[in-house]
């Protein structure tokens, strides 16, 4: 299976990819404001690459539950200087985490290779046309509702079946918009329009999403479902998130979006080493 993001290409099966998070925002749920200044965000991105990140995901608008939308001009002012500097300093694909076609277009022109779209459930094709014209990679994430409404009353009859159906429909729409399936990665959207049981259903049935022959991306890093399940504050959720990532990798997930790059890399590499080990027979 091949995944193309602009000038970059990944062939699967291969060691799992780790996507480091660079939030250039004042209000993201985990590290809002910590890397709001351009140079702080750039240094953070460089550090994540040094820790083993294979990609960097740069976002200028929080998508936490009930977050307020950000004006396009403000989002551009946050992310473009970071992308422009990181393109010259790191040799990994840069992803723009955005819902806006204008931001996606500008970020790709500045050197990003991938659009991470949490609003892939929209009906408009504008952002898809940007991706098709650029040849960039595209992450299609499942979300019920919008960041402002998604956690009000999420409801599913069969969350895994409905997410799988959404992905199949998305691939048809993306192909019609001129995006080759080889550009697409699928993200089930843990925590986006899902209650705790929905998140657990998705995590325990991830293998059922592999039938569409596209790489799967998972983002569980520090998320609230871990806190609800285990009674953990945000700063104490790292180990549980890594456990989820290792579990997901064993179920076939290939890409992991995380704040905690070094620990996630260690967990995934250990899993892969054990899976490849051939014990001696007596």
Task: Write structural notes for this entry.
This protein is α/β, with parallel strands linked by helices and 282 residues long. It has a single domain, classed as Dihydropteroate synthase-like (TIM Barrel). The protein is built from 9 helices and 10 strands. The protein has an 8-stranded parallel beta sheet with strand order 8-7-6-5-4-3-10-9, with helices on one face. α2 packs parallel to α3 (101-110) and α3 packs parallel to α4 (126-134). The longest helix is centred in the N-terminal third of the chain and has 18 residues, at 72-89.
Q: Could you tell me the mean pLDDT?
A: 93
- Pick out the low-confidence regions: none
Q: Helix amount, in percent?
A: 40-55%
Corresponding CATH superfamily: Dihydropteroate synthase-like
Which series of helices and strands comes N to C?
EEEHEHEHEHEHEHEHHEH
The backbone outline, from C-alpha atoms, is globular
Number of strands: 10
Per CATH, the class reads Alpha Beta
Q: From the helix content, strand content and strand pairing, which structural class follows?
A: alpha/beta
CATH architecture annotation name: Alpha-Beta Barrel
CATH topology: TIM Barrel
Note the main sheet.
8 strands, parallel
Strand content: 15-25%
Multimerization state: single chain
Number of domains: 1
State the end-to-end CA separation.
37 Å
Spatially, the strands of the biggest sheet line up as 8-7-6-5-4-3-10-9
């Amino acid at each position: 299976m091949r995944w193309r993001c602009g000038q970059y290409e990944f062939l699967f099966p291969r060691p799992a990819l780790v996507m480091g998070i660079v939030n250039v925002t004042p209000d993201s749920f985990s590290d809002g404001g910590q890397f709001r200044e351009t140079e702080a965000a750039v240094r953070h991105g460089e550090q994540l690459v040094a820790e083993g990140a294979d990609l960097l995901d740069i976002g200028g608008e929080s998508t936490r539950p009930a977050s307020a939308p950000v004006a396009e001009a403000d989002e551009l002012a946050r992310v473009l200087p970071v992308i422009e500097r990181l393109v010259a300093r790191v040799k990994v694909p840069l992803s723009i985490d955005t819902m806006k076609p204008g931001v996606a277009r500008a970020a790709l022109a500045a050197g990003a290779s991938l659009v991470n779209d949490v609003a892939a459930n929209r009906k408009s094709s504008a952002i898809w046309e940007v991706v098709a014209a650029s040849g960039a990679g595209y992450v299609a994430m499942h979300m019920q509702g919008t960041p402002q409404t998604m956690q009000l009353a999420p409801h599913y009859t069969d969350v895994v079946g409905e997410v799988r159906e959404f992905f199949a429909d998305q691939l048809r729409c993306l192909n019609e918009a001129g995006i080759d399936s080889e550009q697409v990665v699928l993200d089930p959207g843990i925590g986006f329009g899902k209650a705790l049981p929905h998140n657990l259903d998705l995590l325990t049935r991830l293998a059922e999403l592999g039938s569409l022959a596209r790489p799967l991306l998972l983002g569980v890093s520090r998320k609230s479902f871990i806190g609800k399940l285990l009674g953990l504050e945000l700063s104490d959720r790292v180990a549980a998130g890594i456990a989820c990532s290792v579990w997901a990798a064993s179920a076939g997930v290939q890409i992991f979006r995380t704040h905690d790059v070094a620990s996630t890399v260690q967990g995934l590499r250990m899993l892969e080493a054990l899976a490849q080990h051939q014990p001696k027979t007596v």
